[in-house]
């Protein structure tokens, strides 16, 4: 009885694959790619694989498969990338440095890997004639030059992306004196071996918002479409809902109280990796979340399918390092910190006698190891060391 069953599976699979392909292949849009920064030396959390799958489903393949960009291929997409780009010290800053240029040179979409897509057709339909498609979060107002940069889209040659990229290049190429470390913003040094110094948002919104305001002030005309208010990709309070792992009914009640409209009908969602999403949902099958969480509901809407099987038991504390869920140990913003980080971190805590030594250890740019979220923690350490 085994034999016919196996035959059945073998025959069914290609038919199924064929059907998927024909329904999902809408016409390919010219000058539209979906870019993201991809520089993972550790295993990639499962939810990020699911997110990338959602981009392809939600775009019906009209912009091709996501293009994963890092130093190995960035010049292919940004031919005028200055040498300083390769001296940006951490990934969050590097992604800030490439997103505008990628759209300017190639057209399409840039988003961070913690974006889940539900329906991208209204974005893609606008790509060919818009200089900027984006969204604002609570308290941002595009007419004041504010927008969220973790999702951006626009046409090839966009006036807006071009102006911002030009401002970024100028900032990178205007070097600082060797002894200077900027307290805000960023700068690079003459020494080609030395990493640039980039403060929080120093290369990103710290440049792009003023550049947009300058463009508006100069009365340059450009075409924009901004998803805001009840179309924003971050319904107000989303972090709270995700962090507390609220169920769909709790979440809807919470949103109703805050007068947030259509929180579950947005086209895209920013899931805030920086707030620990990976860690909080590390051991949860997001495509079949039996607890009925809002996060599970969003993944259900995206129609993604998981490709990994769970392994091992659920553990006390799970630093997400790829799969469901065979991990143990300290998690930091949802990632398992590398050994050097643990070493430095404990060294910083233990060394109190010799504050000079402590300072030099802590001054290793920890952001470069774990990303910009570490900056606050590091400042705390430095502060407690000073006192
Ligand atoms: C860099 O990008 C290339 C091309 O997309 C990819 O194959 C490679 O795995 C990436 N490297 C890292 C460290 O993620
Ligand atoms: C990309 O990953 C490599 C390997 O982990 C790391 O050395 C490098 O600093 C990363 N790039 C950025 C811009 O952080
Ligand atoms: C944005 O700012 C403009 C001009 O100051 C104002 O008219 C508008 O109401 C603001 N929009 C929101 C959503 O606050
Ligand atoms: C303090 O640190 C410096 C630099 O690492 C070292 O040379 C010195 O011996 C240390 N002093 C003490 C008292 O540990």
What is this structure's SSE topology?
Elements: H1 2-24, E1 33-37, H2 46-59, E2 67-69, H3 74-77, H4 91-106, E3 108-111, E4 115-117, H5 121-124, E5 132-135, E6 148-154, H6 159-173, E7 186-187, E8 197-198, H7 205-217, E9 224-227, H8 238-243, H9 248-257, E10 268-270, H10 277-280, H11 294-302, H12 339-350, H13 355-363, H14 367-370, H15 374-386
Helix pairs in contact: 4-6, 6-7, 12-13, 13-15
Bound molecules: 2-acetamido-2-deoxy-beta-D-glucopyranose (4 copies).
One 2-acetamido-2-deoxy-beta-D-glucopyranose (NAG) is lined by residues 39, 41, 88, 90-91, 94.
Task: Give a nutshell description of this structure.
The protein is an alpha/beta fold and about 375 residues long. It has helices spanning about 1-25, 45-60, 75, 90-105, 120-125, 160-175, 205-215, 240-245, 250-255, 275-280, 295-300, 340-350, 355-365, 365-370, 375-385, and strands spanning about 35, 65-70, 110, 115, 130-135, 150-155, 185, 195-200, 225, 270. It is globular, with a radius of gyration of 22 Å.
């Amino acid at each position: 009885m085994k034999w016919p069953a196996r035959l059945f599976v073998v025959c069914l699979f290609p038919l199924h694959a064929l059907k998927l392909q024909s329904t999902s292949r809408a016409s390919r849009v010219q000058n539209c790619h979906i870019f993201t920064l991809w520089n993972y030396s550790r295993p990639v959390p499962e939810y990020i694989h699911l997110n990338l799958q959602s981009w392809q489903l939600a775009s019906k393949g009209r912009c091709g498969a996501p293009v994963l960009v890092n130093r190995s291929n960035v010049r292919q997409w940004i031919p005028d990338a200055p040498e300083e780009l390769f001296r940006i010290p951490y990934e969050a800053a590097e992604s800030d440095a490439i997103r505008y240029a990628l759209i300017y040179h190639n057209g399409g979409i840039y988003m961070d890997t913690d974006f889940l897509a539900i329906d991208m057709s209204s974005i893609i339909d606008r790509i060919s004639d818009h200089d900027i498609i984006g969204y604002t979060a609570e308290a941002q107002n595009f007419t004041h030059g504010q927008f969220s940069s973790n999702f951006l889209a626009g046409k090839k040659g966009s006036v807006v992306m071009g102006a911002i990229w030009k401002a970024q290049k100028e900032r990178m190429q205007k070097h600082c004196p060797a002894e200077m470390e900027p307290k805000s913003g960023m700068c690079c040094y003459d020494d080609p071996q030395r990493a640039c110094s980039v403060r929080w948002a120093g290369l990103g919104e710290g440049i792009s918002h003023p550049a947009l305001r300058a463009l508006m002030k100069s009365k340059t005309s450009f075409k924009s479409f901004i998803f805001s208010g009840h179309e924003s990709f971050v319904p107000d309070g989303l972090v709270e809902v995700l962090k507390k792992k609220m169920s769909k009914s709790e979440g809807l009640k919470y949103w109703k109280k805050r007068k947030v409209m259509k929180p579950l009908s947005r086209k895209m969602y920013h899931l805030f990796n920086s707030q620990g999403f990976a860690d909080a949902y590390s051991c949860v099958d997001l495509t079949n979340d039996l607890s009925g969480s809002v996060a599970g509901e969003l993944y259900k809407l995206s129609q993604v399918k998981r490709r990994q099987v769970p392994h091992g038991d659920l553990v006390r504390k799970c630093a997400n390092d790829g799969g469901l869920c065979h991990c143990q140990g300290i998690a930091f913003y949802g990632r398992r910190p590398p050994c050097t980080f643990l070493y430095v971190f404990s060294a910083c805590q233990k060394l109190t006698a010799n504050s000079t030594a402590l300072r030099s250890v802590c001054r290793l740019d920890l952001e470069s190891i774990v990303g910009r979220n570490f900056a606050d923690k590091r400042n705390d350490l430095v502060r407690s060391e000073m006192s």
